[in-house]
Structure prediction request, 368 residues.
Amino acid sequence: MKIGVPKEIKANEHRVAITPAGAAALIEAGHEVTVENGAGIGSGFSDEQYMKAGATLSTHAGSIWSQAELIVKVKEPIADEWPHLKKSQIVFTYFHFASNLALTKAHLDSGAICIAYETVEGPSGELPLLAPMSEVAGRMATQEGAKYLERQYGGRGILLGGVPGVAAARVLILGGGIVGKNAAVIASGMGARVTVMDVSIARLRHLDETLPVETLYSSRHNLLEQIKQADLIIGAVLIPGAAAPRLIRRTDLSLMQPGSVIVDVAVDQGGCAETTRPTTHADPVYTVDGVIHYAVANMPGGVPRTSTLALTNATLPYVLELANEGWQRALRENPALKRGLNIASGKITHPAVAESLSLPHVSPESLL
Ligand SMILES: NC(=O)c1ccc[n+]([C@@H]2O[C@H](COP(=O)([O-])OP(=O)(O)OC[C@H]3O[C@@H](n4cnc5c(N)ncnc54)[C@H](O)[C@@H]3O)[C@@H](O)[C@H]2O)c1
Prediction:
């Protein structure tokens, strides 16, 4: 199959959909891979590395789109890319259709086959192509929190791990899912005193068994006790398909110590503090009532090399399936990949996308 890897052109996106190693694996399986010049630069992969892997380089995004049977990307095609979409072309990327009617209409009109990373779903509801980015964001949350606790960034001037004879910082993690667990791994590894709160006893049990952390049921009463002592709070709650619950109210900030830090990873779902508003890597923090807020909505974008490698580790097996078998057979044989199908032949095939946009849908099976 002819596979195209355009350079990402959405603002501040430095990831690339296929690494040179991934390109080599696809070429070894008998496919042709064309990569746009400079597509890997932001993630530290040179054009020469792609050429050595056997890929063809092209300076023209348009010709990559027009020749490829399968386009592999990171972010949804932006409006400048919509004219390139064509009937029966498979596009495999993060789409997030449910919140974007214009994007959805453009893809419906194109007749392309749109398989969304974010809805590829395993048998127990796990999201294997979202998980790597939650792992990155969780680990990074502790790292960023530790930085902003430093005096020069306005923080309390506390070293996360303390030193012999001086107590370590207290880290409170709200939500013990993938982000929360990864934040806890790094915070406990750095020697901080870590408490994780969740409403799922099963999650708390798992964390209690696997990490040197305290676990606590997430109730308003427990939260108010904890935030008085916390130096760093990491927001990592998720109610799938809904806005994040606003666990920390504005008035609660007065209970916190001046110079303490909230890293609200859940900002992409609205944030779990009432005072959270989205920020960017260029201007990541602001202060409310003496509490530093870090709320970057695309944290993995700050470490594109790690994020590209983590993402492509997860996507490559699916790309191989699509290329080896064609989309219809690959989706028939792999139910997780079938759940990724959002749009095909001008029809929405994912009920949640259709419902969010009040549009009709058909079952994916009817098109396979
Ligand atoms: N900012 C970024 O760059 C970035 C990157 C990746 C993920 N995220 C976001 O981080 C959030 C967490 O993602 P995840 O993959 O860890 O989700 P997850 O589903 O693995 O974990 C969420 C956890 O929150 C818990 N929870 C729900 N309600 C709660 C409450 N009231 N109190 C305490 N815990 C509660 C759930 O039981 C679950 O264990 C999501 O909003 C996700 O979109 C943001």
Summary: The chain has two domains: 2-120+303-367, 131-302. Residues 133-134, 137, 174-180, 197-200, 203, 218, 236-239, 244-245, 247, 265-269, 297-300 surround nicotinamide-adenine-dinucleotide (CB under 6 Å). The radius of gyration is 22 Å. Residues 304-333 form the longest helix (30 residues).
